[in-house]
Amino acid sequence: MTVLDKIIAYKKQEVIANKQLISIKELERKEYFNTKTKSLKKEIISSNKSGIIAEFKRKSPSKGIINDFSKVENVILGYEKAGVSGLSILTDSHFFGGSTNDILAAKKVNSQPILRKDFIVSEYQIIESKAMGADAILLIAAVLTKQEIKNFTKIAHSLGMEVLFEVHTQEELDKYIPEINLVGINNRNLKTFTVDFENSIKLSQQLPINTIKIAESGINDYKNIIALQKHGFNGFLIGENFMKTKSPENTCMEFIANLKNHNS
To answer: Is 43 considered catalytic here?
Structure first.
């Protein structure tokens, strides 16, 4: 059983438990459930934004503890000041040390669209995402069937949320559907954890020309972004490169300043 298999098995049990604690009707009465969402897609393609989706992540199964001292409010506020196009917040607690409260905290200090990054395996989690204030959700092709992707995308859109569809192999790309707002191509192989930009570029070339393409993982230099932009990538999800430092928000600000200086 791979780490991903373990995560999904745990996640399915977690969803069952959460349903017992909070019903869908209760979720629908939450503060943010009827709040209008913000478009991550529009922010990414905005000419005055960096295209960067900056992530708040405490740990991961492959890296262990990445950052267990930064406050979500400080980091998120700093990311916004740095000029990010959006925010990604990991809400898985067992494997990544996240919390749904992190999104709630971020909503209080931030005006950028928020991607809930988690392992979505149930309609319940999509409704839960809207209730906590997420503007977009992540759907991982590796753990979902094409029919599930269709169903979950339809539900997310009906609630006003966008979908970031993540792939990292040809087999996963075959699950793509035209209704998807954003396609994230993971540069890191989920089995070997090696980073391969060339694989991502090859996969991206098979997508429709109007697809908003997001490069994920392994981006540790603004020059990576410049190279990927030449191959049609619009957005760039960066987490560990910022979070592993003493001040993620300042690292992000410096990164974006270097990128802007190069492009000006």
So the answer is: no
* Amino acid type, 221: D
- The pTM assigned to this predicted structure is 0.95
Q: pLDDT of 48-80, one tens digit each? A: 889 999 999 999 988 899 999 999 999 999 999
C-beta atoms surrounding 190 within 10 Å: 18
Quick check: is 216 catalytic?
yes
CATH number belonging to the domain at 3-263, selected among 1.10.10.60, 3.30.300.30, 3.40.1190.20, 3.20.20.70: 3.20.20.70
Q: What is the pLDDT of residue 176?
A: 96
For the chain, domain boundaries: 3-263
- Among the listed residues 217, 224, 234, 241, the single catalytic one is 217
Q: Indicate left, alpha or beta for 200 from its phi (over 0: left) and psi (-120 to 50: alpha).
A: alpha
Catalytic (active site) residue 213: no
